[in-house]
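**User:**
Make up any protein.

**Assistant:**
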Amino acid sequence: MSSSNIYLKLLEMKDAEAILDIKRRNRDFFQPFEPIRDESHFTLEGQENEIANGIQGAKNDQSYFFGIFLKENDELVGRIALTGIARGVFQNAFMGYYIDQKYNGKGYATAAVSLCVEIAFSELNLHRVEASVMPRNLPSVRVLSKAGFRHEGLAKTYLKINGAWEDHNIFAITAE
């Protein structure tokens, strides 16, 4: 799936080194918005394990991990994932994403979110996609708003981020 400047592709093992590079270079930048991770996460094996879990998740229709690639040179600049997929009467997934700091503010995250929603609805036949964002993460709030997500409420002490239980705004978009 592609947009004017980027495309999404399911992550493969060959992408592990590029993802590791992004994770290492952006460690301090990402940390205020992520769980505290074990040092093994910042190794090639750690990223290969994460991609392997993503590949298995896609086979089981439980999760899909996409790389965000620049069309101009096929550079991997981030990741977006649909996880916790529930079928039956719910038809829901949770979305999470990150973009390399050097590519922030260029519209890539908004384009990736829009493309991922398109995949969720047209290819995966989901009805709803949710994303949660800490209220102080204003750039991510703007991304979701620009991509058509609606604010549904505040979940108090929702996720343990950077060692502390953090409130999160809940956003969602439905197929309608």
